Amino acid sequence: MLTFNYLMHCCESIFVTSPSCLISLLATVISMMATVMNSVLLQSALEKLGIQTRVQSAFSMPELAEPYSRQRAIRHLEKGRVVIFGGVGAGAGNPLFTTDTAAALRASEINADALLKGTNVNGIDDWQTSNSNMILDHISFRDVVSGGATSMDMMAITYCEENGIPVVVFNMLEPGNISRALCGEQVGTLIDQTGRISQ
């Protein structure tokens, strides 16, 4: 999927400025399908653990995922089910949205308490120190935007700020971090309205 996202970025200018946009469009569609496939794999893993899970996507793949419906998603959540939304395009129904922006949009629509951004970095680096290995525990949206130092799309950060949705950026490859993030424990970097830079 990283390859497809990279290809999508490389072809973005072609998509906007040239009639030879088929490569970019194809990369976008493949990325959208890949996010739904990843969602189905996650669903399978969760259901093997006995967790009732549903996959929803605005990108039509009825054999694999329910069509996106805000009301249905909320009903699933009220019944204690996990709802997984497909990402790029598939999550938002728009192939030009990143997975981050699609996640921010869905978080807002379902009135989520927070958006958890699982990635391959430990959080947001403290760009104000010479030590690039210093990870911030807590920072404001404004400081993230002004510093520009995050693994998350700035459009998604701004959307979360405007809608009052805290964001946690954490390393999902570290064993136990997903559970810790879901339980509200300190993991990675918390981004919110107030923020305070701490180490």
UniProtKB/TrEMBL annotation:
It holds the Pfam family AA_kinase. This is Uridylate kinase. InterPro entries: AceGlu_kinase-like_sf (IPR036393), Asp/Glu/Uridylate_kinase (IPR001048), Uridylate_kinase (IPR011817), Uridylate_kinase_bac (IPR015963). The lineage of its organism: Eukaryota, Viridiplantae, Streptophyta, Embryophyta, Tracheophyta. It is found in: Cytoplasm. Its main location: cytoplasm. It catalyses: UMP + ATP = UDP + ADP. Keywords: Cytoplasm, Membrane, Pyrimidine biosynthesis, Transmembrane, Transmembrane helix. PANTHER family: UMP KINASE (PTHR42833:SF7), URIDYLATE KINASE (PTHR42833). It is an enzyme of class 2 (transferase). The keyword Transmembrane helix applies. GO terms for molecular function: UMP kinase activity.
